[in-house]
Each structure stands twice: as structure tokens, then as C-alpha cells.
Amino acid sequence: MNIALVAGSTRGTGRGIAVELGRAGYTVYCTGRSTRAARSEMNRPETIEETAELVTAAGGTGIPVQVDHLDEEQVKALVERIEREQGQLDVLVNDVWGGDALTQWHVPVWEHDLGKGLRMLRLAVDTHIITSHYALPLLVRKPGGLVVEVTDGTKKYNDGHYRLSLFYDQAKTSVTRLAYALSHDLREHGCAAVALSPGFLRSEAMLENFGVTEENWRDWIPGNPTWAVSETPAFAGRAVVALAQDPDKMRWSGQSLDSGSLAQVYGFTDLDGSRPDVWRYIDEVEEGGKKADAADYR
Length: 298
Fold this sequence. Notes:
With about 300 residues, the protein is α/β, with parallel strands linked by helices. The protein has one domain (about 5-295): NAD(P)-binding Rossmann-like Domain (Rossmann fold, 3-Layer(aba) Sandwich). The chain contains ten helices and nine strands. The strands form two sheets. It has a seven-stranded parallel sheet with strand order 3-2-1-4-5-6-9, sandwiched between helices. Strand 1 (about 5), helix 1 and strand 2 (about 25-30) form a beta-alpha-beta unit. The chain is globular and about 55 Å long.
């Protein structure tokens, strides 16, 4: 039996990862703040109970646990419960975010709401560190464990681009560095840590923001070809499963990875059978000037 904790699995990438781990037979602890009884400050309808039910429907065992990952006592209690019920932890996914409504784009730091900016950093970075602090002693009990730090943008992309907000920029680059640092802590235990970025993600919020659905998103391609290389949250989920099941996963430890490039290595596909590779498309076509159809990167 394999056990995973997906911290921040209420929606989006976290939900996609949790469900695909379930499809691979994992018992998945699905944590977040939004439940059917109460919503988080994001005020969205998705819940951890729904995610856990999707995990179970996919073939795994989903266990929803309401946790605020900034609250050390709640995180400690969560890990103690996993240890008590399972006695092991094989995969830790740090996907807590919650900063969407806090970002002020194209606003210099001296004009950005300081409280919102600092809150964003706490949600994006402190949550990951707190969760790792309590969960890793359980994960390192046996070699082969995997920690996945979910971020937005590869190291190559983020190093060369300002992410339109100092706070957002720091949040997303910091998470990549967390994976690098954790890889050093985990090396002697035979466990790996990686940073993983999805591509142009068709999450619940993204579809809603653009006013499209999973059925008609292709209507946006003529006006914005990048939509042609967008992906579902399941694609990143399959990337995590491939990494977790790789006996040679240590070759990736400390690196910045993305779902599209890993699909080329492991051969998994998105739900429609394609392999969207948006970061390569951005690098070669949008910024590199290569004449190519976006469909060639799917």
C-alpha cells in the first residue's frame, strides 16, 4: 500500500494530483480549508470532500482532512493521524497556494497592499515549510519517498521573467528553491524532492475566469494560440505518479520539472491522449520566434 499527502488538494493542480494518485491505487490524504460546512477565504465551491470522493472513485482511498497549513498544531495533528492510521508516508505534495485574490498585478511593491502581499508569501511558502517540517520525519523512514513542490513556471522561465508582481514573483521562485534545498536534506535518506510546474492549466478557476468550459475552451484558440497547448490538472497528476513510481527518481532530485517535458520522458498523456508542452512552446515559438503551429506542441 502506498500513502500520499496532497496538501492543498481542494481544487486545481492539487485535486488533479490527488485523483491520479488514487487512480494508481494510493491512499490519499486530501487536505485544505474548504469543506462542505465552511469555505476558505477564497470563497470557492470546491471542497476537500469532493476531492476525496474523486480519489476513491478513481480506484484509491481518499481521506479528507480539514487543515490550515499555517497552523502548526493542525499540521502536526494531521501527520500524527497519518502515522497512527498508516505507519508510513510515501509521497508528500506541497500544493498549498490560496493567493489568487491577494495579487495586484503590474503594481510596484510600494503601492501593493503590504498585508495582502505578505499574506500571499505566508500561504505560498510558510505552509510548505511547516508541512515539510512535520511530515518528512515520517516520509524518510524508508528510502524511495518523494516530495513534490508545486509552483507556477519552470526555473528557466522564472529566472528570465518578472512575474508581474514582486510578491507573486517571490512566491513562485521560492517554491522552486525549496525543492532544491529539501533535496539536500533528503539525499542521505534515499528520498527525492522536485519542483513541478503544470503548464497552461485549465483549472476550475481558470476556465471560470475566461468564461469557458472544458467542453468549449477550444473556441479561444484563434485569439490566443497558447490555449492549444493548455492542459487539465490530471496531466500534472500523471507526472507525479510517474515520478513516484520511478525506481530511479533520485536522478530528478533538486530539479525544476514540468508536466509537458516529463510526459516526453515517461510517455503519459493528458485525458485526451495528447502531450501538451506549453513551456517549450513559449520558449521556442512565442519568445524564440520559431514558425510553428501550436498544435505541433500537443
